[in-house]
Specification:
about 30% helix; alpha/beta; six-stranded mixed β-sheet
Length: about 500
């Protein structure tokens, strides 16, 4: 890593409040020349708020920003970019109907005769950028046709197309596989020079050890401290983040499925990916789904709940065959689905916490005359805010004002209220900090102990091993193994996850 000398960016005494919430209070931060500074903290700690202040999206209530010793007054996102501060948001900010090149240079297009867009020149500029960054992207490809991982690369190229001095990356690897993470880290190393620096927000401790020089910690909107990464154990960082010790990553006590499965799937196939997928989930167990990106894990969940059309296959609930046409029908049959895309498919951002919590069970909160029982909704909202430790000033708070992790908890609460027999959690801890993850882990295990049948899809192998009683592994739309946790390791999970069409049979 490049030796960092001198201060590139300084944050001093910065505060920011919103109605009912003090997001930041007297925060300080120092980014040195040539370094990657990791910024960590639980959801709601203030990381994203601080970055939005630096990006000109919010205006601070108090405090000072300095770049190379010069005090800044950031007047908006475009001004921040002109000053040399670029940000890559966790949620993509791309226009799907435009090409890759058009997205990267939007607002900076070249025109012919001052009137018409010069797409050839735009594509040429984009290709020069990709060649410099080592990115395999087609400038003329429409963004809507790209995978999530390639859309992330477009966001990175867009940020680096400006003459950035400070690059801010908010959970940049959330949608990337290991090979794509390596490409990203190569980009970061090429970007950082004695004149530049990177602020890197992530919840993945193993990434911080690979890419960062120092780690700064926020907790409850306040600065806690900074540590040199190479001299600090992950457990110390976690302790600073949560203010309490996190237990070791024990595995569940082995349990053998008994009785009749709650959910049984046979020969599940879809037109474009899934082929003859068989599995079952029993009361009181967590069945984990592992595999590389594009293996078909999410597609299995979507086909089961009727979000995607299945070409063939049989689904049985407690032995009875069912034909599920859509997720609403799945919910009526006792199957709840927590999507990996919480903002698009999990919550209503412009509605309150309590309204979202009862969303899947709204009929239960109506009187005989059709009126909504507000007091019951409020009581249920308070119950689940307390039970899941959702950080919100009240149940009336709009979900869009919560941190990502707390939004995720609202989605989980919605399905707990519905009291489904089968709960399918797709990436339940994506974008959630270490402390909140522990709470979700405890919650999922408690639900299983209460007799729920849980399907848990995760891209993090340690998480799959930590939670699952059995683990189903997928590759190229096929189920390649179903392993008991006691026999599963990260090595053999990856082995089965890379067994493509021409290889092997299913291991059970």
């Amino acid at each position: 890593m490049t030796a960092a000398t001198g201060t590139l960016l300084e944050v001093e005494g910065v505060s920011k409040g919103f109605p009912g919430v003090q997001a930041l209070a007297d925060v300080q931060l120092e980014l040195r020349h040539g370094e990657v500074l990791a910024l960590v903290g639980e959801n709601g700690a203030g990381k994203s708020t601080l970055m939005k202040l630096l990006a000109g999206i919010y205006t601070p209530d108090a405090g000072t920003f300095r770049l190379n010793g010069r005090e800044l007054s950031i007047e908006g996102p475009r001004h921040a970019q002109e000053l040399g501060i670029s940000i890559i948001h966790q949620e993509f900010n791309l226009m799907p109907d435009l090409t890759v090149a058009q997205n990267i240079f939007i607002g900076r297009e070249e025109r012919q005769a001052g009137l018409f867009l010069d797409d050839r020149a735009l594509n040429r500029r984009a290709q020069e950028l990709f060649d410099r960054l080592g990115l395999a992207l087609d400038p003329a490809e429409r963004v809507e046709r790209l995978t999530v991982a390639r859309q992330q690369m477009v966001e990175i190229a867009k940020a680096l197309s400006f003459d950035a001095k400070v690059l801010i990356m908010d959970e940049p690897t959330a949608a990337l596989n290991d090979a794509e993470v390596d490409v990203l880290f190569g980009l970061i190393e090429r970007f950082r020079t004695p004149e530049t620096g990177v602020i890197y927000i992530s919840h993945r401790m193993e990434e911080l050890a690979r890419i960062s020089d120092r780690v700064s910690v926020l907790r409850d909107g306040r600065y806690v401290g900074t540590r040199v990464t190479a001299e600090t154990e992950p457990r110390e960082i976690i302790s600073l983040m949560v203010g309490r010790e996190i237990k070791g990553e024990q595995r569940p006590v082995p349990r053998h499925p008994e009785g009749e499965p709650v959910l049984s799937v046979r020969g599940l196939s879809t037109k474009h990916l899934l082929r003859d997928v068989d599995f079952e989930v029993y009361p009181g167990e967590i069945l984990g789904f592992a595999g590389l990106m594009g293996a078909g894990r999410t597609e299995v969940a979507r086909a089961v709940v009727g979000a995607d059309r299945r070409e063939s296959g049989e689904i049985r609930i407690r032995g009875t065959a069912v034909d599920i046409a859509n997720p609403a029908e799945a919910a009526r049959l006792g199957i709840g689905y927590l999507s990996e895309d919480r903002k698009q498919l999990g919550v209503l951002l412009e509605r309150s916490v309590r309204e979202n919590i009862v969303l899947s069970s709204l009929r239960d909160y109506a009187s005989g005359l059709g009126f909504v029982r507000d007091r019951r909704i409020e009581a249920t909202g308070r119950e689940y805010v307390e039970r899941l430790r959702i950080k919100t000033p009240s149940t009336a708070q709009l979900v869009q004002n919560l941190s990502g992790g707390n939004q995720q908890k609202v989605v989980i609460a919605k399905w707990l209220v519905k009291d489904c027999d089968v709960l399918i959690f797709d990436e339940p801890t994506r974008g959630i900090d270490v402390g909140a993850k522990e709470e979700i882990y405890v919650l999922l295990r408690r639900l299983a102990d209460e007799g729920k049948a849980i399907v848990m899809i995760s891209s993090e192998l340690p998480e799959v091993l930590r939670l699952s009683d059995r683990i189903a592994v997928m590759a190229e739309g096929r189920l390649t193994a179903v392993l008991d946790n006691a026999e599963a390791t990260q090595e053999n999970l990856m082995d089965y996850a890379t067994r493509f069409s021409s290889e092997g049979t299913i291991a059970r």
